[in-house]
Specification:
This protein is mostly helical. The chain has 13 helices and 3 strands, in the order H-H-H-H-E-E-H-H-E-H-H-H-H-H-H-H. A hairpin with a 6-residue loop joins strand 1 and strand 2.
Length: 284
């Protein structure tokens, strides 16, 4: 999904760019020179001084420890995190609200992937997760010598897709945005893209246009080429998820209709090789 600029034609007809523009990048805060010059202890509107970020973080680290039991059926891994850190998630805040013994706090996550939970914890403590987006690599991620440069299985795409769906469950929109932005920085093959598309259509709601429309647009622009590289997988995907096939076909037809309108506006004939439509006789 790395070369999203090729999707422009199809995306225009389906407003994909408009959907992705706000979702892929975290909005920049407006610059305020006056605010930058003010001291850190400026009072809040209620008269209290602004909290020192370092002090707040130390308070987080003083909070009780929570055991996160990830997995099930004998394949469980226990992770540990500070309560105040994970309670920034509405999901964890609600689960832990019913637990009164601070010496025995535990949350079971039987259906969540261990790697995605690890990424969530890394993000909660540091504001990022590996591989990070780097300023000197605007369209890519920090290199990882342990993985191939081209994702030919879909594993790299699925890593960030699982973080995205976990962030949705945990109520963390900023983490969702970050994971989504990383998806479009992965170089992948047709097989990898099908694996990713299958996950998206199998694990996101039908109204999640931020994830689904770029997938459909990607295949609408490339299906005539890429399906030969993964024809069996493409066919299986269309049969397993009819909505995927419908979405791809709709975008292809929308683009053809747009081109036909443009030719009419330019006064260019649409061509005479198409099948003629039967016209009813006026003497009926």
């Amino acid at each position: 999904m790395a070369d999203t600029e090729d999707l422009t034609q199809i995306a225009d007809s389906a407003d994909v760019d408009a959907e992705m523009e706000g979702a892929e990048e975290v909005a920049e805060l407006p610059e305020d020179d006056d605010a930058a010059e003010q001291p850190e202890d400026i009072p809040e509107p209620n008269g209290a001084p602004k909290p020192n970020p370092q002090t707040v973080f130390i308070e987080y680290l003083r909070s009780p420890i929570v055991r996160l039991v990830v997995g099930n059926d004998g394949d469980e891994t226990t992770l540990s995190a500070h309560k105040a850190i994970i309670e920034q998630s509405p999901f964890f805040k609600e689960v832990l609200s019913s637990q009164t013994d601070d010496d025995d706090l535990a949350v079971h996550l039987p259906d969540e992937p261990l790697d995605a939970v690890g990424c969530f914890l890394q993000y909660q403590y540091t504001g990022e997760y590996f591989p990070r987006r780097l300023a000197n690599i605007p369209d890519g991620l920090e290199p990882d010598p342990s993985i191939p440069t081209v994702d030919d299985t879909g594993d790299q795409l699925l890593k960030h897709a699982r973080v995205y769906t976990l962030a949705e469950k945990l109520g963390l929109p900023e983490l969702k945005t970050l994971a989504h932005s990383k998806i479009h920085r992965i170089n992948s093959t047709a097989v990898g893209e099908i694996a990713y598309a299958r996950f998206v259509y199998g694990n996101t709601p039908t109204n999640d246009y931020i994830m689904r429309k770029p997938v459909a647009a990607f295949w609408a622009t490339r299906s005539h080429v890429l399906r030969h590289e993964a024809e069996a997988e493409f066919k299986s995907m269309c049969l397993e998820f009819p909505q995927f096939g419908f979405d791809v076909l709709s975008l292809v037809l929308d683009q053809r209709e747009k081109r036909a309108r443009e030719r009419e506006e330019d006064g260019t004939p649409a061509g005479g090789k198409g099948r003629k439509r039967m016209r009813p006789s006026i003497n009926i």
